[in-house]
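Morning, I've got a small favour to ask if you have a moment. I've dropped the whole record in just underneath, so have a look.
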Amino acid sequence: MTTRLKKQIGTVLMLFAVVCLITSFTSGSKPDSKFGKVQVGAITYSYRDMPDRSLPAILDYIVRSGISSVELKGEAVEEYAGIPAQGQKEWRASVSMDKFREIKKMFNAKGVKIHILKLQTFGSDEEIDYAFNVCNTLGAMGITTEVSLDAAKRLAPFAEKHKSYIIFHNHCQSGDPEFSYDPILAVSKSIMLNFDCGHYFGATGQNPCEMIRKYHDRITSLHLKDKTRPAEQSSCGDNRSWGQGQTPVTEILQLIKKEKWPIFCDIELEYGIPSGSDPVTEVGKCVDFCRQALSENERK
C-alpha cells in the first residue's frame, strides 16, 4: 500500500468518525470529550462564524461537536439574561442571578460543564463583582482575560473575595524577551493561566511543553491550535488545519495525560473553514484528533 493511499484512507476514516460523532449527538446522546482522563473542551469563540450566535444555538453546536466542557464567552450569556442596549452598567449592578441559574441548568441538562467564563465587564467595582457572581452561579472556576500586570493587581482582590480565579490568557507576548509570567503570578494565588499553546509556539517557535511543565500548578486550561513557527510575514505564526502546522499538539496532550495534571485542554478553532464545511464539523474533527492523540500510547 502506498503512502499516499494510506493518507487517503486515514482521511476518509477520520471524516467517517466525525460524521458518526455528530450524528450521535444530534440524536439526543450527551457528549463526552474526556479521553484518557484528559478533559478536552472548546472555547465558544470557535463558533463565531455560525449564523445563529444565540446561547441555545451555541449550546447545540457544542453538543453536536461532541464537547462536554467549555470556556464560555459572555456576550451570548448576557444577551440571554436580558441585558439592555442602554444602561448596562446599572443593569449589571442590580440584575438577579435567576437567569444565570437557568443557563447552568440548561447546560447541565445537555451534559456540558462551563469550566471558565470569558466575561469582559471590568469597568466599575460593581461590574467586577457582578462578573464573579455570574461566574460562580454558572459553576465556572474563574474568569479569563488578557494577561497583564496591571490587570493582575486590579482583579486579584476581587477573585480572592469571591473565592474564584482570575485566569490570564496570552496572545503573542511571549515573543518579547522581556515578558515574564512570574511577577504576574506573584501578585496572588488567585491568579492562574489560560495558556495558549498555539500563540506561544507561534511567537517563540519553542515547545510549549516546557512552559506547561514549569507552570502546570498555575495553569487551569490550555488553548490548543496548530500554528507555524514565527516568520517574516507573521510574527506570531500562521494557523493551519490540525496536523498541517508545526505545533506539537499530540505531545502536549500526551504530557497532560502522563502527568495526570487537572488541566482543561480547549480547542480554539482559528484556521480557515474549508469550503463545504462549518465550525461545528471542524471542531468535531479537532475532537477526533484529540481522541486519537490521547489513545496513541494504548495502540503501541
The chain has a mean pLDDT of 92. The chain is about 45% helix and 15% strand.
